[in-house]
Specification:
The protein is α/β, with parallel strands linked by helices. It is built from seven helices and nine strands. Helix 2 packs antiparallel against helix 3. The structure holds S-adenosylmethionine. S-adenosylmethionine binds next to strand 2, helix 5 and strand 4. It is found in: Cytoplasm. This is Protein-L-isoaspartate O-methyltransferase.
Length: 222
Amino acid sequence: MISKNLAGIGMTSQRTRSRLIQRLRDKGIVSEQVLAVMEKTPRHIFIDEALSHRAYEDSALPIGMGQTISQPYIVARMTELLAMSGKLDDVLEVGTGCGYQTSILAGVARRVYTIERIKPLLKQAAERFKTLQLHNVTFQHGDGYLGWPAQAPFDGIIVTAAPEQIPQPLIDQLAIGGRMVIPVSMPQGIQQLHLLEKSEEGISRMRVEEVKFVPLLGGIIE
Ligand code: SAM
């Protein structure tokens, strides 16, 4: 199904993709590296064919199992916040979902480690990584709350589901000089995107903007 979808990339898709990139620029995305990766990544292969005509809209879309593919603006914003730190050798993503954000990270980082709690979603994402020949992506079925201690420390950590508190294991697995971008649920259903930076002196924390993500949940689904 994916290869049929990939074969469908034509002038229309390229044009709508370029329009999306212009929209991201208009919304304030400045990283040329991130924009270039997003321009060449076919978002339509990450969603069901029935929705593929909406793939280059700047909106989140359903991917099944009650989950979503993130809004392109949010993918761009979170990636550029990480990439601004300079060195991005090892990046951890919590919440692979359909794998779109992972694929964008694979274009800006040397190695990407990604964890998903819902096995069927991870299986589909893994097929897409193969189709796109992303050899620098390693994935795991598990609870991302715990991070991936065997591969730590990470220069960047990106969390694409919202906890009520930032998981301590993720803070511990951040390298000195590393950055974490994570949505945090607040009272009254509000979520704020947080940017954390770790230095020898400790952790600095900044609120970036209001966002809307699915919740970070414990446990795994086979
Ligand atoms: N990164 C995706 C993209 O490219 O569009 C979006 C992911 S979706 C908004 C959030 C994902 O986080 C879902 O697939 C969900 O199953 C996953 N998730 C939630 N809690 C998790 C946890 N504790 N560990 C790993 N994955 C988790």
